[in-house]
Amino acid sequence: MEHHSRSGGPVSESKVPEVTLGFWIIKIAATTLGETGGDTVTMTLNWGYLAGTCLFLAAMVVLVAAQIRAQKFHPALYWSTIVASTTFGTTMADFADRSLGIGYTGGATLLLVCLVLVLGFWYRSEGTISVNSVSAPRVEAFYWGAITFSQTLGTALGDWIADTGDMGYRGGALIFAAGLAVVAALYFWTRVSRVTLFWAAFILTRPLGATVGDFLDKPLGQGGLALSRPLASAVIAAFMVICLLLIPQRAGQHPGDQAAERA
């Protein structure tokens, strides 16, 4: 069913996937792959944070452009773009936190401000930040901007929790998993805006994936499993492919109907 946005004209079928349990499973796998894949390039292959950031930024720009040019939802293209954004987020956050020396607190704060600004401009332009409206090029630009900043923010938050204090990667994963459980409880048992809950869950899955990725490839002395980064990345990528083949992938309605969009 078509509806209208402030950008003019009817908004047709969304170009992002229907949000189901399968969506969140693949999303967490994609964020974990982004962590291990980014670390593979910057650390294992010794490219460094700047070169790795430039590489994945280029890949993300190409994929986002292809996504915007596409006429309908394509699962492989969409999830490839998500992986590119989450891998770029990993290397960009590491570059800001470590190479630029602004630290986890400064990096997370800066990225949070950027994300809030993108969502604010999106809402001011379209009157909603619901993914139901992601079909027109301008809305897609806002969407992928928000996705990129949320992915990068998630990396910074994951590293911040895991590397400061005594939490470690297991503790960090538990914290973000608990946060997602709270969001799920609000979704099922309250009338909190579904649009707000979607973005909260989307942001929280990134640091969860980041801490799980770090848990897989960090040394035993740092609380990880010391797995090979390339091997871990290959296993996660294979898991994603299997999920895409087995879990129905279709564009459709997302959390929040027209009433929720106004909430």
Give a verbal description of the structure.
The chain has nine helices and two strands; from the N terminus they run E-E-H-H-H-H-H-H-H-H-H. The longest helix has 27 residues, at 137-163. The chain has helices at residues 21-44, 49-69, 75-99, 103-126, 137-163, 168-189, 194-217, 229-246, 258-262; strands at residues 3-4, 10-11. The chain has a two-stranded antiparallel ribbon with strand order 1-2.
List keywords for this structure.
DUF347; disordered N terminus; mainly alpha; 263 residues; two-stranded antiparallel ribbon; 2 strands; globular; 9 helices; disordered C terminus
Beta-strand content estimate: under 5%
Helix and strand composition category? mainly alpha
Strand order of the largest sheet: 1-2
The portion of residues assigned to helices is: over 70%
Uncertain regions: pLDDT < 50 for 5+ in a row? 1-11, 254-263
Provide the gyration radius in Å: 18 Å
- Give me the strand/helix succession: EEHHHHHHHHH
Protein name: Membrane-anchored protein
InterPro entries: DUF347
Keywords: Membrane, Transmembrane, Transmembrane helix
Pfam families: DUF347 (PF03988)
Secondary structure topology:
Layout: E1 3-4, E2 10-11, H1 21-44, H2 49-69, H3 75-99, H4 103-126, H5 137-163, H6 168-189, H7 194-217, H8 229-246, H9 258-262
Antiparallel strand pairs: 1-2
Helix pairs in contact: 1-2, 1-3, 1-7, 1-8, 2-3, 3-4, 3-5, 4-5, 5-6, 5-7, 6-7
